[in-house]
Amino acid sequence: MIKRIVAVAALLPAALGVTSGVASAQAAPKAPSAVVTLTYDARQAGTWSAAITRGVANWNSAVHNVRLQPVSSGGRADFVYTATSGWPQTTLGPIVPGGRRGQVQLGQEAVDEGYDVTRIAAHETGHILGLLDDYSGPCSELMSGHGPGTACTNAVPNAAEAAEVDANYANGAAAARPHHEQIVIDIWSPENVARSR
After folding, report:
1. Measured between alpha carbons, how far is 57 from 44 in angstroms, rounded to an integer?
2. How far apart are CA 152 and CA 91, in angstroms?
3. Which of these, 104, 112, 129, lies nearest to 37 by C-alpha position?
4. Where does this protein hold Ca(2+) (predicted)?
5. Closest CA to 175 of 24, 44, 36
6. Residue 177: its pLDDT value, please?
7. Could you say which of 57, 148, 180, 195 would form a disulfide bridge with 139 (CB–CB 3.0 to 4.6 Å)?
8. What distance in Å separates the CA atoms of residue 119 and residue 108, rounded to the nearest whole number?
């Protein structure tokens, strides 16, 4: 009788779908990557403030491994937006917290030629996050920049662009260090289209 009780006790958890202290053959879920928080300072951006807010919100909605937020009062920003009279230009990232400070110059010349301010701000932020230009790309590609012309107002990164940024920050800030320092100047010219890829 005791042998039967022991046998039933051993089979009962399996019949009920309950584990009984036996290791599961399923892999444990992966811990999520640490989200990298980058802070920015837009106090020198003048009339670009609303465009920056919208562009940053577009990036924050599209990516998972990095979060952009305004720097706290008195803090050191990881990158700075500045309004200028020239063409937009930006430090090519990926920028990391506590590393070299990135610069985003939001140039009025692009606006004067008819380009959308939110697209410009979001595009330049893409450079901070490590993306290169692809002027031959379609309007749906944010990093196509001025390539599709002034009628293009898309300021949202596509899935491939978001995935590339997530890959840049996949293992936290330590893995996101760039191999070189470079400034990207987004001036419209046929030579830029030819050099973009």
Report:
1. 19
2. 24
3. 129
4. 116, 118
5. 36
6. 54
7. 148
8. 13
Q: What is the mean pLDDT of residues 28-44?
A: 78
* 109 catalytically annotated: no
pLDDT single digits (tens) 49-94: 999 999 999 999 999 999 999 999 989 999 999 999 999 999 999 9
- On whether the CB atoms of residues 78 and 38 are closer than 8 A, the answer is yes
Whole-angstrom CA distances from 5 to 2, 16, 19, 90 are: 5, 16, 18, 74
pTM of the model: 0.77
| Per annotation, catalytic residue among 109, 113, 124, 191 | 124
The residues spanned by each domain of the chain are 36-195
Q: How far is the first Cα of the chain from the last one, in angstroms, to the nearest whole number? A: 79
Q: Which residues contact 160 (CB under 8 A, 6 or more apart)?
A: 141
Q: In CATH, which of 3.10.20.600, 3.40.50.300, 3.40.50.720, 3.40.390.10 is domain 36-195?
A: 3.40.390.10
Binding residue numbers:
116, 118, 123, 127, 133
Binding residue ranges for Zn(2+)? 123, 127, 133
Contact 164, 131 (CB under 8 A): yes
Feature table: binding site for Ca(2+): 116, 118
